[in-house]
Design brief:
about 625 residues; alpha+beta; about 65% helix
Length: about 625
């Protein structure tokens, strides 16, 4: 009964979303203000319906209701309750329900306030209704999470994919999906702005506010996803340049440019590029959704392999793209009328944003060119890390240099001397390591120059008694410091990692770098979900002082006999010691891989600082708006 109720609620939500777009649009054509006023109750009906439907689906997971196909495919009686809840968004159908649920709830947060007219809010809800109608129709007719296994109800579910049975599933997908939802909100706000064919400060403030929230969530999604891959897949990599990873990275790059471009728009009243970025972020997120769910790429991250549903998502993308292009071309001639001559700092910010967009385009090209090539030629080609590193690393360095100049643009001698000093530091570090490694040089240059620029900005503010004026910029300062910390981590682990694969068994020891590893014993571990063979490896320094233990495992899941490797990690701020357990080589010996990863934790620390900086910018911006 309850699954059928969930399906009916999805139908109500779909009808409400269609009316949310159609009724205000009709009111606009007929000039009937009364029709526009229905947007708020319709959005509430849609949101409430989706909330109750989601509760029903979560309850089906917790109650092991295997009559629901989605539950049977993604759960099991042995699955921990936390993962049963997370399985709600762990597959295609549930994750799409999570999308529309979050979109409807987030949509309710935009309402009439000071300097925001009711007409603008109604137009925004109308375009949000368009997006909700598209997604809810797709969900209802192609991805029903309440479909039944009748009359043959299985007594046991297939279980959640073992790779997904990790805390990463609880955190990573919701953050990423919420980031996409934020870009959908920005998309609707941009269309509402273009509809009135003029851009006001309140519009840019609203777009910037939701853009920063979306950007923070996307940052968290990418950072946690990177940590999850590092922690879960057993080889210690933190970024694959996988097509599905790129599908979430590209919108993040565009959102990064948008956040900076909103600053230019607020200061200079130039809006064309801002509107393009505001529209593009969501469209690229939808392109990534198509990539993940269509089966056009093979990836451990993919949600579904269904070309037919992929084509429908591509159709949605085409519809939204056509509407966005039409609205932009209609309003573009009027957007430049208020434009002023850009200041030097604004020019640098625009240049930096352009560099970021070039970076996004290079990732798009590397991700989708092999797909297009195979489609037309029937032959396969691969574009891997060498392409992305060769193209993207110089772009990162260039964008950081432009950013550093923008922070201290009033003092050309200062930023020029800092740049020169950073080049010398990078050259010195590279030469000290007896190598002509360009990646090492680039990473040291970028991180050292960004840190030096931040310090110089603080020093000059103190000298000119303007330190208090930096309070409003503290969020941006912390976020940029986080970027520098993340670059340090990426540079260090990419260039100085020590890695060795060896044969080990009880009583055997090995020295790697400045550490000694002793294989103490092999033990058996059993949980509700899996059985495992575990290696207990002692970690000592060169003087044989105990530092800790590594516990890599080879797990076999009870529900489906799937085997996987679980890494063992000795965490540290300046280094991680990472171990994975391979196949059995003899009665007591196993293949063991041990890696020493210097400063890899700086990747996650830097990502956390970026998020904190973004959240602080939102808070300070909200306080400034209230004072105004």
């Amino acid at each position: 009964m309850f699954p059928e109720l969930g399906l009916y609620l999805l139908a109500i939500a779909n009808v409400s979303a269609v009316l949310l777009f159609g009724v205000p649009w009709l009111g606009r054509i007929k000039k009937a203000e009364q029709l526009k006023s229905y947007s708020k109750p319709l959005l509430r009906i849609c949101a409430v319906s989706l909330v109750i439907a989601s509760i029903i689906l979560v309850n089906a997971f917790l109650g092991d209701d295997f009559s629901v196909s989605y539950v049977a495919d993604h759960s099991n009686t042995h699955l921990a309750s936390l993962y049963k809840v997370a399985a709600f968004w762990g597959g295609h159908e549930g994750s799409m329900l999570f999308w529309v649920l979050a979109m409807s709830l987030w949509g309710l947060t935009v309402r009439q306030k000071e300097n925001i007219t009711q007409e603008f809010v109604d137009n925004y809800r109308m375009f949000l209704g368009l997006v909700l109608a598209g997604f809810s129709t797709f969900l209802l007719f192609t991805s029903n999470p309440f479909a039944r296994n009748l009359p043959d109800i299985p007594t046991q579910g297939r279980d959640l994919n073992p790779i997904l049975q990790d805390i990463g599933l609880v955190i990573h997908p919701p953050l990423l999906f919420l980031g996409y939802v934020g870009l959908a909100i920005v998309f609707a706000l941009a269309l509402a702005t273009l509809l009135k064919q003029r851009v006001e400060q309140s519009d840019i403030k609203l777009i910037r506010h939701h853009s920063i929230i979306a950007w923070v969530l996307l940052t968290g999604g990418n950072v946690v996803g990177s940590w999850w891959a590092y922690n879960e897949l057993g080889w210690g990599g933190w970024w694959f340049w996988d097509p599905v990873e790129n599908a979430s990275f590209i919108p993040w790059l565009v959102a990064t440019a948008l956040v900076h471009q909103c600053t230019v728009s607020r200061r200079q009243q130039t809006h064309k590029f801002t509107m393009i970025l505001a529209l593009s972020g969501f469209l690229l997120a939808l392109l990534g959704t198509f990539t993940v769910r269509s089966g056009i790429v093979q990836s451990v991250h993919a949600f579904a392999v269904d070309p037919e549903r992929g084509l429908l998502l591509l159709g949605l993308l085409g519809i939204f793209l056509a509407i966005a292009v039409f609205q932009y071309l209609r309003a573009a001639p009027l957007l430049s009328s208020a434009a002023q001559k850009l200041s030097q700092q604004s020019k640098l910010l625009v240049l930096g944003n352009f560099v970021i967009i070039v970076g996004a385009f290079s990732v798009i090209l590397g991700t989708y060119y092999p797909i297009i090539y195979q489609l037309f030629s029937g032959q396969s080609i691969s574009v891997g890390p060498p392409y992305f590193n060769t193209i993207f690393v110089p772009i990162v360095v260039l964008s950081v240099v432009v950013l550093g100049i923008a922070l201290n643009y009033r003092y050309p001698k200062l930023w020029a001397s800092m740049l020169g000093a950073s080049v010398l530091v990078a050259a010195g570090v590279t030469a000290y390591n007896d190598t002509l490694n360009g990646w090492l040089f680039a990473g040291v240059l970028a991180s050292s120059y960004l840190i030096a620029s931040i310090i110089a900005m603080l020093i000059m503010a103190a000298k000119t008694n303007k330190l208090s004026s930096l309070t409003q910029k503290s969020g941006a300062i912390i976020a940029h410091l986080g970027l520098a910390v993340a670059i340090i981590g990426a540079t260090a682990v990419s260039n100085f990692e020590e890695d060795e694969v060896m044969r080990m068994g009880p009583g055997q020891g090995r020295e790697i770098g400045n550490y000694i590893f002793v294989y103490e014993a092999t033990t058996n571990v059993e949980t509700n979900s899996y059985k495992a063979i575990q290696a207990n490896i002692q970690v000592m320094d060169i003087d044989e002082n105990l530092l800790g233990y590594l516990y890599p495992q080879r797990q076999t899941f009870k529900s489906n006999a799937i085997e996987r490797t679980a890494a063992g990690t000795n965490w540290g701020l300046s280094r991680d010691i990472y171990a994975s357990m391979g196949g059995q080589l003899s009665e007591s010996e196993y293949l063991i891989r041990i890696s020493i990863k210097p400063f890899v934790s700086f990747l996650w620390l830097g990502g956390g600082l970026i998020m904190i900086g973004g959240l602080l910018s939102i808070t300070l911006g909200h306080r400034r708006t209230k004072r105004c």
